[in-house]
Amino acid sequence: MTRTSSVDVLRGFALLGIGIVNLPHLALPMAAALASPEGTLDLIAKGIVGLLFEGKFFVLFSFLFGWGFGVQLASAERSGVPAAAQYRARLIALALFGVAHALLIFHGDILLAYAVLGAGLWGLRDATPRRLVRIAAAMVPLAALAFTALAVLDASAEDMAQGTMDLSGLGYQGSFLDAVMQRLADWPIALVVVVLFNGPLAFGAFCLGLAAQKAGFFDPASPVQGALAARVPVLLAVALPANALYAAATLGLLPAGWPTTLGYAALALGAPTLAAVYVVAVLRLTPRLGLLAPAGSMPLTGYVAQGLLAGALFHGWGLGLFGTLGNAALLGMAFLIWGAVTIAAILWRQQWERGPLDAALRAVVRRLGRSGSRP
């Protein structure tokens, strides 16, 4: 398959992980989503998500964002078109879409964070791959500190629920307007979580993605890709125990205090190393995973559609299943939602080149780009 097809397959695969991680936060009260479940099956399901999914898939998307930025720069250079106005327009459009997504569909939106972090990536557009890799590595200890802060926040979730902060999510059981108001109320704490959980590693992955584009990572027979594949045993030796430690911490299986804090901090190593293993595995299997490419070619539409379907199932304006399913059932539901979005994307691509929201984003970027280029 072509380079673009392999990237689209990787995005289509990443949509699955994003949906699995996000669904509990769409289907459960915030307090329940953060708490350790009581049932054995739910406990196992939450452990699987912590071990294999949490933190890994936004890293994949962020890596591909950085790669796409590099592709845009290279394209602008070949055509002799200044890239600054278009890139600025893209970040503004992402921010606008992110705010809308956070208020209308999912308070844990990451698009706004991408817009802010993307501004920092512009300053590194001329950096060498080696420098970009070093900056990415520097994000790991910063992420460890951020995850440590999250451990403190998670430990205080029960106290917050018993105090003045409402974590019941009652608005999600009402009308669509009630859900919007609930998301608005939840957004401040959600923003804090996104900044801590996603910020450092996302920016590091941006840098790695840009370095990958400069080094021709997705080119056929890329030596960089081969070098990464050769390191899979080492990556797994780091990723599996680190992610197991993190999963144990989120389940409350570690003693309170520094052991739990260390468990959260371990994700700073576990997430990017396991994400790298996923990249190698998916690229090796790309010829067999072509059905994922249509969804991956419209990532914004797929990302938003998963949240919209979840809202239709769980919120009061839909089927009203909010708070009724445990982690095990939600894990299965996430696969079903992802499957529905994947099939819909396959059908959509038979008629149209771009997903509806991806086309809308492109149109907004063009409009803002023209406005920004005027004297």
From TrEMBL:
<keyword id="KW-1133">Transmembrane helix</keyword>
<protein>
    <recommendedName>
        <fullName>DUF418 domain-containing protein</fullName>
    </recommendedName>
</protein>
<dbReference type="InterPro" id="IPR052529">
    <property type="entry name" value="Bact_Transport_Assoc"/>
</dbReference>
<feature type="transmembrane region" description="Helical">
    <location>
        <begin position="12"/>
        <end position="35"/>
    </location>
</feature>
<dbReference type="InterPro" id="IPR007349">
    <property type="entry name" value="DUF418"/>
</dbReference>
<keyword id="KW-0812">Transmembrane</keyword>
<feature type="transmembrane region" description="Helical">
    <location>
        <begin position="232"/>
        <end position="256"/>
    </location>
</feature>
<feature type="domain" description="DUF418">
    <location>
        <begin position="214"/>
        <end position="365"/>
    </location>
</feature>
<keyword id="KW-0472">Membrane</keyword>
<feature type="transmembrane region" description="Helical">
    <location>
        <begin position="91"/>
        <end position="120"/>
    </location>
</feature>
<dbReference type="Pfam" id="PF04235">
    <property type="entry name" value="DUF418"/>
</dbReference>
<feature type="transmembrane region" description="Helical">
    <location>
        <begin position="303"/>
        <end position="322"/>
    </location>
</feature>
<feature type="transmembrane region" description="Helical">
    <location>
        <begin position="187"/>
        <end position="211"/>
    </location>
</feature>
<feature type="transmembrane region" description="Helical">
    <location>
        <begin position="132"/>
        <end position="153"/>
    </location>
</feature>
<feature type="transmembrane region" description="Helical">
    <location>
        <begin position="262"/>
        <end position="283"/>
    </location>
</feature>
<feature type="transmembrane region" description="Helical">
    <location>
        <begin position="47"/>
        <end position="71"/>
    </location>
</feature>
<feature type="transmembrane region" description="Helical">
    <location>
        <begin position="328"/>
        <end position="348"/>
    </location>
</feature>
